[in-house]
Amino acid sequence: MKRKYWIMLAASVAVLMVALLWPVKKPEKVMPQKSEILGVLQSQSQIATTEVTIRKMGVYDSETHIASLNPSKWKLGKRLAVIPVDVTIRYGIDLNELKESDITFVGGDSVQIRLPKPKIIDKSYNPVTNSDEIVTLSTGLRDKVGETTIQQIKSMAFEDVLNQEKELQQQLANELTHNTEAVFTSLLTAIGLHPIFI
Q1: Are 193 and 32 in contact (CB under 8 A)?
Q2: Three-class DSSP category at 135
Q3: How many domains are there within the chain?
Q4: What tens digit of pLDDT does each residue of 138-164 get?
Q5: Contact 157/58 with Cβ under 8 angstroms?
Q6: Core-most of 30, 97, 111, 122, by most CB within 10 Å?
């Protein structure tokens, strides 16, 4: 009986040793499809945009009847009204423009991603006039500023912001690109990928 016990014990130990020492083939790492990566990135569209509101001051010159946005050209005695104009710009990376062809596996767990360039995604200003915000400098002898002129000033301010705020746009572009890359790196690292942005 004892002999049988020792044989059984020796056989069990042998089986255990074989099980422990036998080379186990690790399952191959399954890389996600490009479409899956694209889905992960596009789901984060909110983090790739920012919204800013820029206030411009428009002046109606009662002598020339021309709206001016340049304070250096304002002259005392000729101004009739100062009109604030708030221009809202949504600026960012439109992730709907990201395509599978912008994603390339470059060996191992590295993936190269070409992000779209930041741009103005949406722009607007409020066409409704708030008369409480208009500063009138009239003596009462001049014509009141009409709604048509107010809308002209607002339109000029809107165009001025879009044309003159290049420095702000570049600053926003750099910040947005950096923040977007940081978030995407975190998301992709979590699924075992190392992103390289170009």
Answers
A1: yes
A2: strand
A3: 1
A4: 555 455 677 888 888 888 888 888 887
A5: yes
A6: 111
For the ranges 6-20, 75-89, 179-193, the lowest mean pLDDT is seen at 6-20
Please check whether residue 174 lies inside any domain of the structure.
yes
Strand pairing report for 135-136 and 79-92: antiparallel
* Token couple for 157: 């301010």
How far out from the chain centre does Cα 148 lie? 35
Q: The pTM is what? A: 0.63
Gap between the Cα atoms of 30 and 163, Å rounded: 48
Structure-token pair, residue 20: 């422990």
* Alpha-carbon distance values, 146 to 74, 102, 167 (Å): 19, 52, 34
The candidate with the shortest Cα–Cα distance to 95, out of 180, 159, 27, 3, is 180
Give residue 68's domain range.
Answer: 30-197
The two three-digit tokens of residue 167, written as one number: 């420095």
Whether 12 is covered by a domain: the verdict is no
4 falls within a domain: no
C-alpha distance from residue 170 to each of 33, 166, 197 (Å): 33, 6, 18
